[in-house]
Amino acid sequence: MDISRFSRAALAGAALLVAAAPANAESGRLLASQCAQCHGTNGAGPGFEQIAGKDLFNDLIEMKYRPIEGIMDRQASGYTDEQLRLISDYLSTQPGTGDD
Ligand code: HEC
Q: Which residue has its alpha carbon closest to ligand 1 atom 17?
């Protein structure tokens, strides 16, 4: 493969990655909208524990695979691991109020 063809492929790949980022954020926002009824809009309360501005992925995986029969186990098991990743990536970018 000559260099210029390689560069073009690399650029195209980079462009795809850049284009994918907002799409992931949008998917995360939509998936996380379901959490709002108990944790407030974008997880920032008021409600149960504030979940904005935190990395929740490991917590959500724990809830899904080691359930203790709480509300959140049922919530977490309704999503694929990839969806939990999108949800937690999105919520981690949201400002919390610092109250909780
Ligand atoms: C029906 C209400 C309800 C919904 C909907 C809900 N949660 Fe929860 N969540 C709770 C309650 C109640 C707690 C605290 C008690 C518990 O853990 O069971 C909690 C706790 C949590 C915690 C633990 C926080 C901490 O600091 O310990 C996380 C993380 C969490 N929720 C994330 C989410 C996410 C992400 C969603 C959306 C996919 C969601 N929740 C949807 C009710 C809900």
A: 72
Per-residue pLDDT tens over the stretch 41-60: 999 999 999 999 999 999 99
Q: Does 59 contact ligand 1 (Cβ within 6 A)?
A: yes
Q: Establish whether residue 71 lines the binding site of ligand 1, counting it when its CB lies within 6 angstroms of any ligand atom.
A: yes
The CATH number of 3-92 is 1.10.760.10
Give the predicted TM-score (pTM) of the model. 0.83
Q: What ranges do the domains of the chain cover?
A: 3-92
pLDDT of the residue at 21: 76
Would the CB of 55 count as within 6 Å of ligand 1? no
Closest protein CA for atom 29 of ligand 1: 56
* Dist CA 66 CA 57 (whole Å): 14
Handedness of CA 43, 32, 63, 71 (dihedral sign): positive
Which pLDDT value is given to residue 4?
79
